[in-house]
Write a structure and sequence with these properties.
Strand content: 15-25%
Helix content: 25-40%
Structural class: alpha+beta
Number of strands: 32
Number of helices: 29
CATH architecture of the largest domain: 3-Layer(aba) Sandwich
CATH superfamily of the largest domain: HUPs
Low-confidence stretches: none
CATH topology of the largest domain: Rossmann fold
Oligomer: single chain
Number of domains: 6
Distance between the termini: 37 Å
């Protein structure tokens, strides 16, 4: 037996692929292109199971498409700027660049050890000048297009660290590093005007081959809604606040206004008043809440009156102005007109603060009373207390009231979007410097293109208490590009989403020095044909990438409008973990007693439940340990064959062991030829060719539909059928044909093993990675072969069921094929019942045949038996007559002969056994002795 040594085989073929530059590709107009890409990974210290799954899916598809004849672009790079490197610099006094490069080299080594077929010439990483210079170039171009803005925005501010924190660094209102209470602060920040493309971002979704769930998430995030702008004047200030509403029909029911606590106008209005102290306390309390929780209809309503009044532009009525925690500054104008009779949140707020409630919509069939209302009436009806619009249906009134407001210059119909402009400012070191210089005389001035790139200085201090860029005078102090005077360089860096919003284009032409990429190369390779990544990036990353693609299209850099034609979001990798039902929580390591099987906190027994693999729970599995123990092919095959890409994958030690056995068995089967070949071709050869082509057809379809689990399991089952064929006796030509087809089908999922079979067992020249995907031989898929195979399956199951009952080893198995007349009678029963006839009608018709009449009661008994379950015969193999079934029974001897000591075949007419009468067409009587 040939021993399977995955470490040796995989090292051998990885070297051969590298030496042959097997996966390097260039523009080739004679070939159809296919661009496969996984989401740009952050170079953490090592791969986790999510990485392994993501890359295995992409590599399998890339290999399949190459074999189909496509010119496949399959690159890899690293999203290398970001917080983790800077955190390491702060915590360990490390150089973030050195720390990042060490991680890149390690994760790249792991990817190469797994045999992923990347074109490594195209490797990029966002931290190198030849990449981030184009971030800055794009920013300047977008500025020229009017897509860059510098505005005030609320940020999380740690007063001790003296720095801005991302939302994930300010969990529960405290600083991730020093645990100080986070405050809110207005800072001037840089934005990209993504809202300019809101309509196009929404409209183009319908043309994408993306999961509906992802498209819906993007639709909701963009949040297009048609409604009305209504301008409310703030008494005593002269300020007019444009409020967006979809319910202009309720304007007469406004009894107060509610502003977001973080709205900058509010802080201005209360400054120096008796409301300022309470406002500041409430502001801090509200801004430490999760903003999604704030918008939850069930959340507690918090707020206060701030001493201002607003004028209803329709009624002229003055209404009080409040702040409320359920209003978010980023949405609309950060203010809403409050109609408590017809909005539940407003209703609860009004009840809590004793604000009047005015009904302006009454139902058609009954009347609501304001004194008896227990909740807001949010349904349709007729307007009341609404001046000239009384009696009008409220939906019809929306347009009429909007038109009235437009005539008065107090608003009118409009379209609003929930999506905000993209805040790209980060007060951190490890990112792309924003290419602007601030001059007291000239304002914010863009860095000239000739002065790019703006490089990160090396002489900075990572104290964790300020933006490190501000600690280097040589970096900060600059000359104004306009007037030449003293100026200050921008110290904010770009959000790392910038890096991941166009990297897929740089892969197309990573060598370009005069432009981000060649337009000709882009027109050939773009867009990405299949993008693969986690659902957690369904909104921000994908939305920013789509925006970037449209903006750069408008720069004339390419002609297409979407970056990713098709998207696959792979499922999570889960593993059982202790779960305490009493505490209703998954238990991390140290929180449960494994010996007693109990929760340490409450002492009650825990159960094992599936949970996403995570370091915090401690239920992770190191992919490298899998590779070291089983080999890369086994690790990849397990990941791919256990669940289809979009489904959740459940890890189990038993599962990986089982796959290891499958791979070893496949290797031995495919590498060990028969000791001798038979000379004459028989039915088994035809059957094997039938199986190979049926499976090939199904596997091709499964790969095309990204149902990789189904494809690989079909191939694994085919290997077992092939082994049975070889054990029974194979002809050399059929053996070679089948072996070649199986090796080719295995190549996308177990590439190293397949290469070894290709070279050693098949003696082929060249790489299987470059071989063409086999074509289906339709002529080999004969119905009569399927019929015989089904016959063997059904008869084999019947024999096994009888043996279970007898509980003894047989000395002989006899198959008795039904008498010829039963084939005619079976057809008559099926046809007769389809025509609505009963058993008596069928018997009468059959008795018109003299030969049938001679059989008398036998025919009647047979027909009556069939009539009780006529459709039970539908699943049985179909034969035109006894002779055809006899051939199938003879082939059962060939296919299953090794399982039993002896197999005899007889006809019912020639048998003296009483049980012979039980035979029906497609299911012989079975006599075991």
């Amino acid at each position: 037996m040939v021993e399977y040594k995955p470490q040796e085989i995989e090292a051998k073929w990885q070297k051969k692929w590298a030496d042959a530059k097997a996966f390097e590709v260039d523009v080739d107009p004679s070939k159809k292109k296919y661009y496969v890409l996984e989401m740009y990974p952050y170079p953490s210290a090592k791969l986790h199971m999510g990485h392994l799954r993501n890359y295995s899916i992409g590599d399998c598809l890339a290999r399949f498409k190459r074999m189909q004849g496509y010119n496949v672009l399959y690159p890899m790079g690293y999203d290398a700027f970001g917080l983790p490197a800077e955190n390491a610099a702060i915590q360990h006094n490390a150089d973030p660049e050195k720390w990042t490069w060490e991680n890149i080299e390690h994760i790249k080594w792991q990817q190469q050890r797994l045999g992923f077929s990347y074109d490594w010439r195209r490797q990029i990483q966002s931290i190198t000048e030849d990449y981030f210079v184009w971030n800055q170039w794009f920013f300047l171009k977008f500025n020229e297009m009017g897509l860059v803005a510098r505005e005030d925005a609320y940020v999380n501010w740690c007063p001790d660290c003296k720095t801005v924190l991302a939302n994930e660094q300010a969990q529960s209102g405290t600083c991730w590093r020093c645990n100080s209470q986070v405050t809110q602060k207005i800072l001037t920040q840089w934005f990209l005007n993504i809202r300019k493309y809101a309509d196009e971002l929404l409209d183009c979704l319908k043309d994408l081959e993306w999961p509906e769930k992802v498209k819906t998430m993007q639709q909701n995030w963009i949040g297009r809604s048609e409604g009305t702008i209504i301008k409310f004047e703030i008494v005593g200030t002269g300020e007019e606040i444009p409020v967006f509403t979809t319910r202009a029909d309720t304007i007469y029911g406004v009894t107060f206004m509610t502003f977001a606590p973080e709205n900058p106008l509010v802080e201005k209005w209360v400054k120096g008043t008796k409301y300022e102290k309470d406002y500041q306390a409430l502001l801090h309390e509200v801004l430490t809440e999760d903003r999604f929780e704030r918008m939850n209809a069930e959340s507690e309503k918090k707020g206060m009156f701030i001493g201002k009044e607003a004028i209803n532009p329709v009624t002229g009525e003055k209404v009080p102005v409040y702040i409320g925690n359920f209003v978010i500054y980023e949405y609309g104008a950060g203010a809403v007109m409050a109609v408590p009779a017809h909005d539940q949140r407003d209703f609860e707020f009004a009840k809590k603060f004793g604000i009047p409630i005015r009904i302006v919509i009454q139902p058609e069939d009954y009347e609501i009373n304001v004194d008896k209302m227990s909740r807001a009436y949010e349904e349709d009806g007729k307007l009341v207390n609404s001046g000239e619009f009384d009696g009008m249906g409220n939906r019809d009134a929306i347009q009429s009231i909007s038109e009235m407001l437009a005539k008065k210059g107090k608003g009118g119909p409009t379209v609003n979007y929930k999506i905000r402009n993209w805040l790209i400012s980060r007060q951190r070191y490890w990112g792309t410097p924003i290419p602007f210089i601030h001059c007291a005389k000239c304002g914010a001035v863009p860095v000239p293109y000739d002065d790019l790139p703006v490089r990160l200085p090396k002489n900075v201090k990572f104290t964790g208490t300020a933006n490190p860029l501000e600690t280097d005078p040589e970096f900060v102090n600059a000359k104004c590009p306009k007037c030449g005077g003293k100026a200050r360089r921008e110290t904010d860096t770009m959000d790392t989403f910038v890096d991941s919003s166009w990297y897929f284009f740089r892969f197309i032409d990573p060598w370009s020095k005069d432009a981000p990429y060649s337009k000709d190369a882009m027109e050939y390779w773009g867009p990405v044909d299949q993008y693969i990544g986690g659902i957690e990036h369904a909104i921000m990353h994908l939305l920013y990438a789509r925006f970037w693609t449209k903006a750069t299209r408008d720069l004339g850099l390419h002609s297409f409008s979407e970056p990713f034609a098709a998207l696959l979001t792979q499922g999570m990798v889960n593993k059982e973990n202790p779960f305490c039902e009493a505490c209703n929580v998954f238990l991390p390591i140290g929180k449960y007693d494994e010996g007693k099987k109990t929760c340490i906190k409450c002492g009650k027994p825990y159960v094992l439940k599936s949970a996403k693999m995570s370091k915090s729970l401690g239920n992770t599995v190191d992919p490298q340990e899998m590779v070291d123990k089983y080999g890369a092919d086994t690790a990849r095959f397990f990941i791919l064959a256990t669940a289809n890409p979009e489904k959740q994958l459940e890890w189990s030690d038993e599962g990986i062991d089982a796959v290891s056995r499958v791979i070893k068995r496949a290797f031995n089967t495919l590498m060990e030829p028969p000791a001798a070949f038979k000379k004459a071709k028989d039915f088994y050869d035809e059957l094997m060719l039938y199986h190979v082509n049926v499976v090939l057809k199904a596997v091709t379809e499964s790969f095309e539909m990204m149902e990789i689990r189904d494809a690989l399991n079909k191939v694994a089952n085919l290997v077992d059928l092939f082994r049975d064929y070889v054990d029974t006796g194979a002809t050399k030509k059929v053996y070679t044909t089948c072996l070649e087809a199986i090796a080719l089908m295995l190549a996308p999922g177990a590439p190293h093993l397949a290469e070894e079979v290709w070279e050693v067992a098949l003696k082929k020249k060249g790489l299987i990675a470059h071989a063409r995907w086999p074509a289906v031989d339709e002529a080999a898929i004969k119905p009569e072969i399927k019929n015989t195979w089904d016959y063997d399956t059904y008869v084999g199951e019947d024999v096994q069921n009888i043996l279970k009952i007898l509980q003894k080893a047989p000395s002989k198995v006899a198959l008795v094929v039904a008498a010829e007349w039963k084939f005619q009678a079976l057809g008559a029963v099926i046809d007769g019942l389809k025509e609505g006839k009963n058993a008596g009608d069928v018997i009468k018709k059959l008795m018109g045949d003299p030969a049938m009449k001679k059989l008398g009661g036998k025919v009647a008994g047979f027909v009556n038996k069939l009539a009780k379950d006529p459709w039970g015969t539908e699943k049985l193999p179909k034969f035109t007559g006894q002779a055809e079934e006899l051939v199938a029974a003879g082939n059962f001897k060939l296919l299953s002969g090794k399982k039993y000591p002896a197999i005899e075949v007889a006809t019912e007419e020639a048998s003296s056994e009483k049980k012979a009468e039980q035979a029906i067409p497609g299911r012989p009587a079975i006599i075991i002795s």
